[in-house]
Design goal:
Chain lengths: 245, 153, 739
């Protein structure tokens, strides 16, 4: 039930709705109480599922159905004895972040960034340009600031730009992403530790968890994401095999 | 207090550092050539340069321009004779004219970095500047004309 | 001539024989010189000032109307000062709307110049001792060609000012015209625009000026129930939060009510608005939901409706037809979205109000300000700035009333600045329409019956609460006046109740009538396997002037003109169709493997326009408009260069309608916020080339600002069919995912 339905049923407006929320209604997520409740229920259901499946999960956590909106910490994979399997499972878990629209939208395999949960082409139309910074007159920083803008709805973080085309995540499988991350010809010649540090500490990466406005954040936290990546590296940086994105 | 240089003139301002540059220009400094069209960086009417880069001033906190050089339409040329301004008038580009300061500033930023743009380059760089009157074909032609003339020895 | 003469004098509020001297505009009231009427002043030093009484919004009216006067006056246009008129009845109708500025005022303005010319000639002739009829004017001089003498205006203006103005001025023959019809009239405001010096609605500077940002009720008909302004007032720069009166239907041009946050600057006012807490009373319009409304409209056009025009027995002929072709077409609400959102500045003091506004209608602004303040309209001075686009939005001065109300309340000058969100969400929306067209063929495949049903919440609802049928003037736009050379014709209009403010948007109901008719003719052509051009010409029929009887109506509003003066002339319609198809290489189009071609024709505002569009698929498989050809016949065109710009712009305006733009409603609230939701064509969408051909003739002037728009969308949709075989009957095409 949307806020306006509630108002209509009550025959009178719900008191306390913020004026600007009324202005921008009926965007679904603006008054988010019901949404938060829904998310909490979903989370609880998954927790329950994990409890019920606990023993199986302990044996083979990787093969269990998983909630893509929830990010498990490295500890959840401690039971996986085989280091290679554990490493693969850790990367697969971390890839939930990489494959979230907050991240894929700026890791496109072409010259066009995406936007929104629908991952539609960025509008106004923008082009990658040199260094992923856009083209003259239409640079990323022509519009995007170092912070999210509350009134203007424009998302922002320091050094807003596109990931290199070699680092495309949109439409890739976790396995493909992992292989390209490890490939020095495609990862900008970085060490794996540098890549892990980037994931754990970069301010633009951090935006994924505080995207502003009504955008859905990436799953988990940057801290967990960084820990997963570190644990993946520490367990030998094995890549998951095949599978769907 | 914030130090800004606008069209070569230094200013010292006591304003909310988060106030968009657009409103500092228009409401505080009375420089109204830069236009408000959407407030969300979707139309380009407010485009100015900061250190030569085109930015949408409606979403640019004034703090970002601190100690930098801002150029607005009023400062694009000393006496309105920038080649683009001349081409705009000669070719009858403007209709209502409201978007044209933004179009000109974006075009000037393009030509500065890419003096010989292809038609695709022009389209890409100007894609963020809406013109409801639909003067796009003349804007394109005027930019091309200036670029072509610059090629002549 | 007699009729125009009467109109001219009435427009000045004068009786025959009493033309005003020296009582022109405020500017020269105290100066000496010649003011033969309110449009012209020649100072003692010869400087010519011409008043532009219509609003400049991109159509080039300030570069056009003064040229008409200057031509008859014999002034040097490059030296003429153009003064923008304030709102005043002495100028006649100033509503810059309906592509009417030249169309309706051509003769008036020519006479305004001619009176001045004759007075100057008489004064010079007396000095030379020659017959005034042997003198003429050109380039700021009075000339006597036989004796090769000339005098500058400055040399005769004082003597001319003492003369009695002629009561029946004679007009220059067309071969003596220097500006009217010239392809190269200068663009008056071009340099000011290119340097950022042009003054638009929000660019007015006054000492102590405050800025107001509005919080309008989210749903039409709801009103402020309660509010808490404490957080808003705590923001630095916010001075006042003021509630506005709630309007009552019919809404007309009343301000929408709600709250205003008044602040030292726009940013503070915007932040203040975000910090407001407000609650609103319920409204019946909260039930407005676009998809269910569309379904209701579809039901409406499947049943018999009110008859707009009828000839023969269409229902019977359809019933007995050997075969029938039918189709339904839908168009959504549109927002005007001028690049400059509505804005106005007002200062109420000492029982008077001065306004500076981007308005198409300064006289109606006087009335709206009067209603908002209790002042008399004559105590309201409306200064007209340049308009950053109008498209019909700014002929509705609700925002001007807001500014005046707030200034009176606060006792300071106030600028009201609508945000883009306000503009898109609280517009006077272009209507949303459904149409059903049916054609019957006899046993030989001949077209014998045509039935066209349309329904749309009408503009009438803005002025008459609950009105659900279009007024005669609305239905004359492509429904009642379209020539159909078919023996049995019936056009019907079904009711649609308005839940939002419905207004006129560039070319108005011609947008949907042209869409339905042109798409259907293309469908007929496909079904009958004939060339779409041949089908179009067959429907229009042979060259002739169509009578009311043939149209099947008792009378025709005809955009305010007598049918004898502005006939429905099929020869001119066929002319633009032939012209545009020749330009586009229509006959050879099948050899073009890459592109699909679509044709459409429409007449509106006394201008016939035909368009061919070529579309192709981009690498990503999306439809791209590649090239456009447009032929227009608007009779005598004063400013051909600006007319061409209007036609080029109309192509882009129509492309937005065809491809991207729609406003949809949910719970009575517009779902689009800004240009991310309400999409417009951008530069990469613009065709590679737009070829415009404007006919040269001496027919009575037609409109040029709007008539380019209606045929664009159907031409694109028909071109998509030609390319892909996919028949799309609803715009924007983005809905179907093809663009």
């Amino acid at each position: 039930m949307s806020a306006i339905d509630e108002r209509r049923n009550a025959g009178r407006v719900v008191v306390g709705m913020r004026a600007d929320a009324a202005l921008f209604l009926p965007r679904p997520l603006r008054t988010s109480a019901c949404v938060c409740f829904f998310r909490a229920m979903k989370r609880a259901a998954w927790t329950l599922a994990w409890l019920l499946l606990g023993c199986h999960a302990a044996k083979a956590p990787v093969s269990q159905p998983d909630d893509p909106s929830r990010l498990r910490s490295p500890e959840a994979f401690a039971q996986v004895r085989d280091m290679g399997s554990r490493s693969q499972a850790l990367f697969r878990e971390a890839s939930k972040v990489m494959l979230h629209p907050r991240c894929t939208n700026c890791h496109p395999p072409d010259d066009t960034p995406r936007q929104l949960a629908s991952q539609r082409p960025h509008d106004p139309p923008v082009a990658r340009g040199n260094e992923g910074q856009g083209v003259p007159g239409m640079e990323c920083a022509s519009c995007h600031q170092d912070v999210n803008l509350e009134l203007a709805r424009v998302p922002g973080a320091p050094n807003w730009h596109l990931a290199p085309i070699e680092a495309a995540w949109l439409g890739r499988t976790p396995s493909q992403i992992c292989e390209q991350l490890k490939d020095p010809t495609r990862n900008g010649g970085k060490t794996l530790q540098a890549i892990v540090d980037h994931a754990a500490n970069d301010a633009l990466v951090a935006w994924g968890w505080s995207p502003g406005h009504d955008r859905e954040p990436a799953p988990g936290t940057q801290e967990i994401y960084g820990a997963l990546m570190q644990a993946w590296l520490d367990t030998g940086a094995h890549c998951p095999q095949g599978g769907l994105p | 207090m914030m130090q800004l240089t606008i069209n070569g003139i230094p200013h010292e301002l006591d304003v909310d550092p988060e106030m968009p540059l657009l409103w500092v220009l228009r409401d505080i400094l009375g420089m109204t050539g830069t236009k408000y069209g959407c407030g969300e960086a979707l139309c380009g009417a407010c485009t100015v340069h900061i250190d030569g880069h085109a930015v949408r001033s409606c979403v640019t906190p004034v703090r970002r321009a601190s100690a930098k050089a801002v150029t607005s339409i009023e400062g694009l040329s000393p006496d309105g004779n920038h080649p683009l301004q001349r081409a705009w008038t000669e070719m009858g580009v403007p209709q209502c004219g409201f978007c044209q300061a933004g179009q000109l500033m974006t075009a000037a930023a393009l030509l500065k970095k890419n003096p010989r743009p292809s038609p695709t380059d022009i389209d890409r760089s100007l894609a963020g500047n809406l013109c409801r009157c639909g003067a796009y074909n003349r804007i394109r032609a005027a930019i091309q004309k200036v670029a072509d003339e610059a090629k002549q020895p | 001539m007699t009729l125009s003469r009467r109109v001219f004098l009435e427009s000045l509020g004068l009786s025959v024989g009493g033309l005003l001297i020296g009582g022109g505009g405020k500017l020269w009231a105290q100066t000496s010189g010649l003011s033969p009427n309110v449009f012209v002043h020649i100072a003692a030093d010869g400087v010519v000032t011409i008043v532009c009484h219509r609003s400049e919004m991109g159509q080039g009216v300030r570069s056009t109307l003064p040229a008409i006067i200057a031509d008859e006056l014999g002034a040097d246009l490059t030296q003429v000062r153009v003064l923008q008129a304030t709102g005043h009845k002495k100028y006649g109708d100033q509503n810059t709307d309906g592509s009417s500025s030249v169309r309706r005022r051509f003769d008036d303005l020519r006479m305004a110049g001619a009176v001045g010319r004759m007075m100057l000639c008489t004064a010079a002739a007396r000095r030379w001792g020659v017959d005034a009829k042997t003198c003429t004017t050109e380039g700021g001089f009075v000339m006597h060609t036989p004796s090769k003498r000339q005098l500058a205006f400055a040399d005769v203006v004082v003597a001319a000012a003492r003369l009695k103005p002629p009561t029946s001025p004679n007009l220059k023959p067309s071969h003596q015209r220097r500006y009217i019809g010239s392809p190269t009239l200068p663009l008056l405001d071009g340099p000011a625009i290119a340097t950022g010096k042009a003054v638009f609605g929000a660019d007015v500077k006054l000492p102590g000026l405050l800025t107001a940002v509005m919080l309008h009720p989210p749903v039409l008909g709801s009103s402020l129930a309660s509010y808490d302004a404490s957080r808003a007032l705590a923001i630095r720069g916010v001075r006042h939060v003021i509630a506005l009166p709630t309007p009552q239907p019919p809404y007309k041009f009343q301000p929408l009510g709600g709250l205003a946050v008044v602040a030292d600057n726009t940013w503070a006012a915007m932040r203040g608005r975000k910090a407001l807490v407000a609650t609103w009373s319920p409204s019946d319009n909260a039930s407005y939901e676009s998809s269910s409304y569309r379904a209701e409209q579809a039901e409406t056009i499947r049943k018999a409706c009110s008859v707009v025009r009828s000839r023969g027995q269409a229902d019977e002929a359809l019933g007995s037809a050997a075969s029938r072709i039918e189709a339904e077409y839908f168009m959504p609400h549109l927002s005007h979205a001028p690049m400059e959102p509505p804005t106005a500045t007002a200062h109420v003091r000492d029982g008077k109000c001065e306004v500076w506004a981007a308005t198409q209608n300064p006289q109606e602004s006087q009335n709206v300000v009067a209603a908002a303040t209790g002042l008399a309209p004559t105590d309201v001075t409306v200064n007209v700035t340049l308009l950053g686009g109008g498209f019909g939005r700014k002929s509705k001065p609700d925002y001007v009333g807001e500014a005046a109300f707030l200034s009176q309340k606060i006792g300071a000058p106030v600028r009201v600045q609508w945000t883009r969100e306000d503009d898109i969400r609280h517009d006077y929306f272009h209507t949303t329409s459904a149409q059903r067209l049916e054609a019957g063929l006899d046993g030989e495949g001949k077209l014998v019956a045509w039935r066209h049903r349309t329904t749309f919440p009408p503009i009438a609802s803005l002025f008459t609460d609950g009105a659900a049928l279009g007024r005669e003037g609305e239905l004359a736009q492509g429904y009642a006046d379209y020539p159909l050379d078919i023996p049995n014709v019936r056009v019907e209009n079904g009711p649609s109740k308005a839940h939002v403010r419905i207004g006129w948007l560039r070319s108005v109901n011609n947008i949907h009538s042209a869409f339905g008719i042109n798409c259907f003719i293309d469908e007929l052509a496909a079904a009958r396997r004939v060339d779409p051009k041949a089908q179009l010409l067959e429907v229009l029929g042979p060259a002739r002037r169509v009578t009311l009887e043939e149209l099947g109506v008792e009378k025709l509003p005809n955009y305010g003109h007598a049918l004898e003066e502005y006939p429905v002339d099929v020869a001119r319609m066929r002319g633009v169709i032939e012209r545009v198809t020749a330009m586009a290489g229509w006959e050879a189009r099948t050899q073009d493997r890459e592109r699909g071609y679509g044709l459409a024709f429409h007449k509106s505002f006394q201008c016939q326009t035909a368009i061919v569009v070529a579309v192709k698929k981009s690498r990503s498989g999306k439809i791209k408009v590649d090239e456009v050809w447009l032929a227009a016949d608007a009779g005598l065109v004063v400013n051909r260069e600006r007319a061409q710009a209007q036609m080029e712009g109309a192509v882009l305006f129509g492309m937005s309608i065809a491809m991207y733009s729609e406003v949809t409603f949910k719970n009575g609230v517009a779902e689009q916020l800004n240009f991310d939701g309400y999409r417009l064509a951008r530069m990469p969408d613009a065709p590679r080339a737009i070829h415009v051909d404007i006919a040269t003739n001496d027919e009575r002037p037609g409109g040029v600002g709007e008539p380019g728009v209606p045929p664009v969308a159907p031409a694109i949709v028909n071109a998509v069919f030609a390319l892909t075989g996919e028949r799309i009957r609803e715009v924007p095409l983005s809905r179907a995912g093809v663009v």
